[in-house]
Amino acid sequence: MLFQALVTGFAQGAMIALVALGYTMVFGVLKMINFAHSEVFMIAAYAGLFVMVGIAGRSSPVVVAVAGVVAAMGAAAVLGVLIERVAYRPLRLRGKGGKLGRVTPLVTAIGVSVLLQNVAQLLFTARYRNYPRLFDNPRPVIVAAALLTMVLLEGIVKFTWFGKAMRALSSNEEAARLMGIRTSRVIAKTFALGSSLAAIGAVLYCFDQSSAYPTMGFKIGTQAFVAAVLGGIGSISGAMLGGLLIGILGELVKLTPYSGGVDVLVFLVLIGVLLVRPAGLLGSTRAEKV
């Protein structure tokens, strides 16, 4: 039972980590929490579902799964860029020079999250929609896909021009602009990439949990946010570590008589870690000139 719990927790944690990466990438660039990210996760799950249901039975399970993932990633990337362009960019441009505080973008993100959730309920209704069962045991596929995605992301961030531009923007937006980096384009691409990662996590999650519904983003979005903070928000490796730890911890708790208090224990662990390391497990603190 312990081994099975570890395997299940690793698979669950890998899915949480993929969503947490979206939170940490946006925070690393803009220093804001994109609470609408959980609803991007939900919309992506529906996009993948509709494509897979449409072609299921006419293609092999692998082709159906890949088509669903690609469709989910495309829908999530478009939605992420649209959210940034309509909701966040006007605030960012208006807030240059410190005119806007940190509360306004936060309230805007919550408002976008509530809007998307209600739009999904109007479009898709509140009923659960089951994903097709393409694999008898999807967890090995989930773990392999999640690990491959994380490795590719590390390569993009460390060894590509876009990754260097994103790190420069995270360090100093004004200096990055003076060096010729088109900051608005880099930010839009960051939203697209982070949303695509959430889409992969959404399809993998539904392969394991087998259903999509309008409020599905709330629970895993909360877990992903906690994972990002636990690992060190702004740190990609920290988001990966935090997601895996939360997934494994949750499954281990289910083996105890306190299985109903998984979320409580997760937040207690988060509070304990932040009391000892406020920047998170792999985060780093740095002084800012004011």
Observed structural traits:
2 strands; mainly alpha; two-stranded antiparallel sheet; about 290 residues
The gist of it:
By secondary structure, the protein is an all-alpha fold.
Radius of gyration: 19 Å
Strand tally is 2
Number of helical regions: 11
Q: How much helix, percentage-wise, in residues?
A: over 70%
Q: Strand-residue fraction?
A: under 5%
Strand order across the largest sheet: 1-2
Number of domains: 1
Helix-strand makeup class: mainly alpha
Low-confidence stretches: none
- The secondary-structure element order is HHHHEHHHHEHHH
For the report, how would you describe the main beta sheet? 2 strands, antiparallel
Shape: globular
Can you give the mean pLDDT?
85
Report, as a whole number of angstroms, the end-to-end distance: 54 Å
Describe this structure in words.
There is one protein chain. By secondary structure, this protein is mainly α. The chain has one domain (7-216). It has helices spanning 2-30, 37-55, 61-94, 103-124, 139-159, 161-171, 173-178, 183-209, 216-231, 236-253, 262-276, and strands at residues 129-130, 211-212. It is globular and about 55 Å long. The model has no long low-confidence stretch (mean pLDDT 85).
